[in-house]
Specification:
Strand content: under 5%
Number of strands: 0
Order of helices and strands: HHHH
Radius of gyration: 19 Å
Distance between the termini: 19 Å
Largest sheet: none
Oligomer: single chain
Length: 101
C-alpha cells in the first residue's frame, strides 16, 4: 500500500480498529473514566478528517495540476515570487506524504 493507492475504504478499515478500541474501553472501565470520555471527544473531532484523507490528497494533487505548476516540476526563477503560497504548502504536504521530505 502506498499513498497513491490508499483509498477511503482502506482508511475506513484502519479507523475501524480505533473505533473498536474506544468502544471496548467505553464498555469496560471507560464508562466513568474522564480520560476515556476525553479521548472519545478527540476521536470524534479528528476521525472525519482522517477518513477523508485519501480524497483530500487527490483534491490537493488535482489542484496543483490545475494550477499549471504541477506537483514536482521546477518553478522557474522568474515566477517564484508570483506563485501563490498555497502551491508551496501543498507541494510540501505531498512530498511529506510520499516520504520525500
Amino acid at each position: 500500500m502506498t499513498p497513491q493507492n490508499f483509498t477511503v475504504e482502506d482508511a475506513g478499515r484502519l479507523l475501524g480498529l480505533a473505533d473498536q478500541f474506544l468502544e471496548d474501553w467505553e464498555s469496560d472501565e471507560g464508562k466513568n473514566d474522564p480520560e476515556c470520555q476525553e479521548r472519545r471527544s478527540e476521536w470524534d473531532a479528528i476521525r472525519p478528517v482522517l477518513a477523508n484523507a485519501p480524497r483530500l490528497l487527490a483534491i490537493l494533487q488535482d489542484a496543483l495540476l490545475q494550477s499549471g505548476y504541477g506537483i514536482t516540476a521546477p518553478i522557474p526563477e522568474q515566477d517564484r515570487y508570483m506563485v501563490p503560497a498555497w502551491i508551496y504548502s501543498a507541494r510540501a504536504v505531498i512530498a511529506t506524504i510520499r516520504g520525500q521530505q
